[in-house]
Amino acid sequence: MAGDAFTPTDIIMHIGLNCPELSGHLNPMTTLGRELARRGHRVTVVARPDGQGKAAAAGLGFAAIGATEFPRGSIAAQAMTLGGMSAIQALRYTVGMMRLAAEVTLRDLPAVIRAEGFDALLVDQVNPAAGTIAEIAGVPYVQVCNALALNRDTECPPAVLPWRYQPGLLGRLRNRFGNWFLYRVTEPVRREIDGYRARHGLPTLMRQSEPAYLAEIAQQPAFFDFPRAKPEPRLHFTGPWHGPATTAAVPFPWDRLDGRPLVYASLGTLQNRLVGMFSAIASAVEPLDAQLVISLGSADTDPAAVAARCPGGPIVVPVAPQLALLEKAAVVITHAGLNTALESLAHGLPMVAIPITNDQPGVARRLEWLGVAEVVPPNRLTVSRLRTAISRVTDDPGYRERAHLRAAEIRELAGVRRAADIIEEAFRTGQPILARSGT
């Protein structure tokens, strides 16, 4: 069935989903998968064994790749290592993880496609190896940006670098240098994939005349991107993919909330072992008329040990029911992971961003550009700076007003439904789906 055209009355497909086995990617991808399954499609997550739990929680099928090299628990161990890093060190480590993911995907995904009989694939932008396999196998695919869309543009600073948007010649020159730098840093991943492509008679990734995917969908809204010099015709900004797959029940001591304004702090599920940052956050909040809740983002981290280093008696939990807490929060302190940023923005909440690595600097600068957040870079983090940033976003009503305006826009987007519509249209017609202006 791979490559067949589907008519509007014959659209039921078996769709494979491939993305990194990390919450920031699996949560939105499986939410999207649930929406496709709700429409009658059979959906199977293709990942290393650590992805099986999220697939099962979303009610989706699962097919393993890389099981020999990456038994259950391997990704958590990698995350533990990454969690103690910062900045460029973490970026280089992430590139190494991406190269290993590419190697496993290139080796194992072809057999999984044959065994599962996939009609189509959704592949994460950060694992282009899966797109290469789909191209070789003749399976139509849509590229998915679960994190910030990383598409290069001379007007936009690279998402992994902590640069503000700067129009004009100097900004373009700076951005070109940043793109060159990332091109060199990511060379191990590209070399792995391009070698495989060469053996199958395909041009290198950088020499493709046009994308092989039928569409590219990003869960960020169109307003959550800097102005581009040349918008990519197949890139669709749909809005956030939040839904049941990301709202599993999590225990929390609700009786400890005392009615003061709630400050919710989370540094995500990767860089969550930088205990000094949590201590600085607690010290910054302590003299304010507010109650602090800290989510460590990992069940493997001892909350009592962290709480002992945090003044002011904050509530510290391994993992928090984030969406429920956002309903009660007054302000969010975040690592600026895309999912937390969009969830907070959807609740109309001002933020203080402490971006650490990967696309977090790009997310933080977009929040700042929208006027809904203050940014405190980790290398400039002090209790005084952090307290000033928290006071600024809480005392100035403009931050909350702008966040409320964006929340209203997000409510109008129906992101997950729009994304599923694009996917179905692409796979039904077998033709590239071009984005409407501004979407």
Architecture overview:
Helices cover 42% and strands 13% of the residues. With 439 residues, the chain is of the alpha/beta class. It has two domains: 14-239 and 413-429, Glycogen Phosphorylase B (Rossmann fold), CATH 3.40.50.2000; 252-411, Rossmann fold. The strands form two sheets. A seven-stranded parallel beta sheet has the order 3-2-1-4-5-6-7, with helices on both faces. Helix 1 (23-38) crosses helix 15 (415-429), helix 4 runs parallel beside helix 5 and helix 4 (87-116) packs parallel to helix 7 (187-199).
Quick gist of this model?
The chain is of the alpha/beta class and 439 residues long.
Topology of helices and strands:
Blueprint: E1 14-18, H1 23-38, E2 42-47, H2 52-57, E3 61-64, H3 74-83, H4 87-116, E4 120-124, H5 128-137, E5 141-145, H6 169-185, H7 187-199, E6 216-218, E7 235-237, E8 262-266, H8 275-285, E9 291-295, H9 303-307, E10 315-317, H10 322-326, E11 329-334, H11 338-346, E12 351-353, H12 360-370, E13 373-375, H13 383-395, H14 397-411, H15 415-429
Parallel strand pairs: 1-2, 1-4, 2-3, 4-5, 5-6, 6-7, 8-9, 8-11, 9-10, 11-12, 12-13
Helix pairs in contact: 1-15, 4-5, 4-7, 8-13
